[in-house]
Input
Amino acid sequence: MLKLQKNKFTKRKGPVVLVIMDGVGLGPDYDGNAFKHARKPILANLMKNSLFTKLKAHGTAVGLPSDDDMGNSEVGHNALGAGRIFDQGAKLVQKAIESGDIYTTHIWKELIQKPLSDGTALHFISLLSDGNVHSNISHLLKMLNRASEEGIKKVRVHILLDGRDVPETSALEYVETLENTLSQINTKGYDYKVASGGGRMITTMDRYEADWSIVERGWQAHVLGEARGFKSVKEAIETYRNETPGLTDQYLPSFTIVDDSGKPVGTVEDGDSVVLSNFRGDRAIEISVAFESDNFTKFDRKRKPNVLFAGMMEYDGDLHIPSNYLVIPPSIERPISEYLAAEGVSQYAISETQKFGHVTYFWNGNKSGKFDEKTETYFEVPSDKITFDQRPWMKAAEITDNVIEAVKSEKYPFIRLNYANGDMVGHTGDMDAAVIAMETVDICLKRLLPEIKAAGGIALITADHGNLDEMFEFDKTGAVKIDKKTGEIARRTAHTLNPVPFIIYDPEYKNEYSLSDVKDAGLANVAATILNLLGYDAPEDYNKSLIKIN
Output
């Protein structure tokens, strides 16, 4: 049984409230920094007059392959909740492909069996970019080459266009790279083609059941071949861009590639094999369920082909989704919530739909459900089903209302919440909306902090990674990049490599503790800090606390 030891800090009467400002980093002092431009008197004052430091939220500090890899909400919440650094999906998949271990698994061998013996198709569904957040095009290209080396003659690729973790209109660059690889393979007399696609926010990659119509459009495009038809991916992308000027890759409508007779070139049929080569779980679960479930009611699939389906990883370790996967996911045991549940400490977790799984599933080490139904309360506020630049305030006010009630209830010694604004609005590339998003969070803190003070509590304010801190792209010289076609500033929609703030708001602070000197402090140091302020020593293998008790 898990057990925590008491420390010498006398816990405050009120709760420890962890505020995660999703997508809010501390970036460069330039015109594209929405954090800088936003009116944020509460945060500005806290950063001047409270215990304040900066935390690493990217690269090796959150278990990614290198410090060139930007952080993301999945790995950020894993690190926050786990209190330690675990190798994450991108790194695990990279190792498995580089070593060749992935091709020795029984699942890979089963996936290629019928394509080899019966000439059926092997399908890959993949987010097509090198953002390394949900996928990496290099993984797809290596698997395509391996398939050809294995002698598989027919492959169909279903591409999801990014423009979110990479420049917003960069899709054709990745398409060209993919099609060059397919062309090289086809010189052997093989039949490798792109069969369908669409922007990731329109096609296939929904999460937390926010909008199943996104998955339905993916099913219609990838499986049924019923999306709008085009002779090539380039034709599809250029047509959609011309029809809706300013449309970015992530919002491009679904499409199906058709032959000269108008027939889809790559529907999914009985006997085929399908690989979802994304490694991140949240936006991979729903399409996995659509392929695997026999009792599916979310939309009319019209037909469910009898295929062998596999994910790059197991996307939900508790529900075992999908049934088959190629790479074993990170094993994250003993997150902070499990320790607190064992101690009988009541916890309250809340966000809106877009980040609800992050303060629950990812926070808990990629585990669905609760450690203790009696002491854990989860609350989800339904997100808007529109692009978030249209309502950059999102559901921050409703989240704040509920947290204030939770604080006043005196039921929960530990409360965690996620304001999704910085990330979801940052991803739209809309600078004005991003400024409003940041101001919204600050206004919510203005309401929340006095209630925490009145309850005799402490607030810890941080973020999981950066995003709205860089809304404009840089060129190779470090200057703001200008789009050659439009003459306008090139908008950035991806996460950043910048550190994130860490603030301790403690109205009753009397020097009982101080910030500790932790070298290269990162998100994984937060869990031990929470435990210390709740009156416990952290487990020995947790990353060091950001405070030392005086």
About this structure: The chain has two domains: 16-87+331-549, 90-327. The two ends are 30 Å apart (CA to CA). The CA atoms of residues 183 and 435 lie 45 Å apart.
